[in-house]
Amino acid sequence: MTRNVVISGGGTGIGLATAQVFAAHGDRVLLLGRREEVLRKAEVPGALTHAADLSDVDGVRGAARFVAEELGAVDVLVHSAGGSGRLEPQVEREDPLDLVADNWKVNFRINTLTAVLLTEALKHRLAEPGGRVLFLSSIAAYRGSGSGAYAASKAALHPYIHDLARELGPHGITVNAVAPGYVEDTDFFGDAMDEARRERLIAETSTGRPGTPGDVAATLHWLASPAAGHITSQIIQVNGGAERGH
């Protein structure tokens, strides 16, 4: 049966890999993201695209209208939009406290608010029973991220996931998250990744390799399958054991 799958941040990295997996299994995919040119270049056969800033209420309302007109019901909602703030406009600040405030606001806006607003806007369209809501957390939510802001913005999703699972469970809808570790072939790190840091992150794994977008996409696809119908309110670690450390 063809399902309607909505993926935020679907134009690059993990979101794109996830979209490709669902499309390859015959599902109808809608890619959401801020950059229209990126969405249009995404190699996802038959995918619909809609550009919107999902941290903005009006942007989310527009995306919800598009979903209503083009899809109607939503079988799977995947939240892959977010990042470290590297792509956000840089503001000159003289006061270091202003810089801290900006960093935390940006991270919560792009990682937490985007997921919450889109979920609330589409919640009533989720298939009953069988709907799936899937979030992208991070290993940083458990171990920190250096600055604190990114890690906190991902960790903030966890209680929301648990509350949502309790709310939607009686309707036959599951809510879960995947927490990746170091994943290569994404735009997340930009120029901040050097060989020494890469080797250190790989050495923290038990598998001796970096993660790939496909690793995360496969887990998300399984969590959206009937086989995972009794799994909800969980944060699944996909980081080669790095969260446990050595």
For the structure shown, list the relevant keywords.
seven-stranded parallel β-sheet; globular; 7 strands; 246 residues; 15% strand; alpha/beta
Give a quick summary of the entry.
This protein has 246 residues and is α/β, with parallel strands linked by helices.
Architecture overview:
Keywords: Oxidoreductase. Residues 3-205 form the Ketoreductase domain. Its EC number is 1.-.-.-. Pfam families: adh_short_C2. It is a single chain. The protein is an alpha/beta fold and 246 residues long. The protein has helices at 13-24, 36-41, 57-70, 96-122, 140-143, 149-155, 157-168, 195-203, 213-223; strands at 4-8, 28-33, 48-51, 76-79, 132-136, 174-180, 234-238. A seven-stranded parallel sheet has the order 3-2-1-4-5-6-7, sandwiched between helices. Helix 2 links the parallel strand 2 (28-33) and strand 3. Helix 3 (57-70) packs parallel to helix 4 (96-122) and helix 4 (96-122) packs parallel to helix 6. The radius of gyration is 17 Å and the shape is globular.
- The proportion of residues forming helix, as a percent range, comes to 40-55%
What's the CATH architecture name? 3-Layer(aba) Sandwich
* Subunit arrangement of the protein: single chain
Which segments are poorly predicted (pLDDT under 50) over 5 or more consecutive residues?
Answer: none
- The side-by-side strand order for the widest beta sheet comes to 3-2-1-4-5-6-7
